[in-house]
Amino acid sequence: MISGRRTAAVVLRQYYLLRGSVARIPPLFAWVAIDITLWGFITRYLNSVSNEGFNFVPALLGAVLLWDFFIRVMQGVTTAFLEDVWSRNFLNFFATPLSISEYLGGLILSSISTSTAGVAVMLLLASFVFGLSFLIYGSLLAPFLLLLFLFGIALGVIACAVVLRLGPASEWFIWPIPAVISPFAGVFYPITTLPKWMQWISHLLAPSYVFEGMRAIVARRAVPVDSLVWAAGLDVVALAAAYWFFRYVYRHAVRTGLIARYSAESLS
User: Can you give the residue ranges of every domain in the chain?
Assistant: First the structure.
């Protein structure tokens, strides 16, 4: 049985880390603020030189906001996990009755709190400084955010499993993941502009349907609801696969003794 108290204890540790170190707080806001500011001025410039009357703010700045939200969610999971790795605290967690589900639940709840703080800053900057009205997306904004949230959680858990299997020195594998995925997700352009082999990969990624739907709204076209349902199904599959993969890697680490000698030099 999953214990809410043990899950809350994982979240509480992350809270104490933030409260005890002021240096951990600015990254929750700084990078998203820089991204929104940079792209905000880019969209203003594009609007000023465009003769077609197309508004780049909801198309580009909205895409940046949604993609940054996905990145914050994913990194919220992985950073919480890496905090335990860096402090050599991971083994201590599992010397207790804490289960894998409870530990991952704590990481997810920690990610929700940190990503919420980041998205609040993004919303304020995009709305009040650059005039992005989220009313243009209508009721589909919530499904868009939910689909990206679920995909970010799944990818974050998979990234944690990779580090657990290969060792802390492999953490550099996980930071470029959003950048690698972004061309296939079609964050700034339609999927049809990609080569066929890339389009096949795009159809397996839930974010691609989100950004296609966002562009359809901006272009005043109907958003195919069946594609969002398909994206939701892909997210469910990704979450199940991520949980299975982390569980498998954890059991392998326990069975082989890797978890007992977990250190920055562990690469096998």
Answer: 4-261
